[in-house]
Design goal:
CATH class: Alpha Beta
CATH architecture: Alpha-Beta Barrel
Distance between the termini: 30 Å
Radius of gyration: 19 Å
Number of strands: 10
Order of helices and strands: HEEHEEHEHEEHEHEHHEH
Length: about 220
């Protein structure tokens, strides 16, 4: 995977293994140690990339406890957070607000794949009978949760695989819409295997470049 990313022009890689209570657990020190060992292996193999330690935190009832020993991304104060689709909206709000108050910034992973952040359809002319007769098209606005997260200063990371259509057409359309509205602050691979990485880099990066050119 490091060779693939280097060949694609990347010189710095932020490693973000999952951190989920009961499934994927390790301390910040353990993750940093593993990243340092991998860096040594890459250097020995003449793969010239710089590795940064991080984690992808799962927003559940254990998250705040895990964040007593936080692992922000590289030298930033950002914490990569995944919001599960079954989470309660008010709990997501409270947790992200408490993270902000602690001095860190939640970086929301792949918002285009989160049902809680689904744009809601609205009829812009629903109060106008004439407008309703002449224009029945619906527009959309962001979910109330998404607007709240933006308001408190959260950041958002899109997945290249979403733009490549690897999660279906609906997710791809949401990603394109979010990009058009300027939601994304950065992009990530969310790759778990070399084969998956190659696929999403090819189609995903090309799609993002084309959309940027259009905007």
């Amino acid at each position: 995977m490091a060779r693939t990313l280097r060949a694609a022009g990347f010189t710095t890689i932020c490693c973000t293994p999952h951190l989920i209570k009961g499934y994927y657990e390790r301390s910040a020190a353990e993750t940093k140690s593993l990243v340092e060992k991998l860096q040594q292996q890459l250097t020995a193999a003449s793969i010239h990339v710089k590795l940064l330690a991080g984690a992808e935190y799962y927003l559940d009832e254990y998250l705040l406890k895990l964040l007593e020993d936080p692992l922000p991304l590289g030298d930033t104060q950002q914490l990569l957070i995944e919001i599960p689709g079954h989470a309660q909206t008010e709990y997501v709000k409270e947790t992200c607000f408490r993270i902000k108050c602690s001095g860190y910034t939640p970086l929301i992973a792949h918002p285009e794949r989160c049902p809680l952040l689904e744009p809601k359809p609205v009829d812009p002319v629903k109060k106008s009978l004439w407008g309703s007769l002449c224009n029945s098209q619906l527009t959309t606005h962001n979910s109330e949760l998404l607007e709240y997260l933006r308001k408190i200063g959260c950041r958002f990371q899109g997945n290249l695989g979403s733009f490549a259509g690897m999660y279906g057409g609906r997710v791809r359309d949401k990603a394109i819409g979010f990009m058009g509205s300027g939601l994304y602050d950065c992009f990530g691979s969310d790759a778990h295997t070399p084969e998956r990485l190659k696929e999403m880099l090819g189609a995903g990066l090309q799609s993002v470049k084309l959309l940027r050119a259009e905007n």
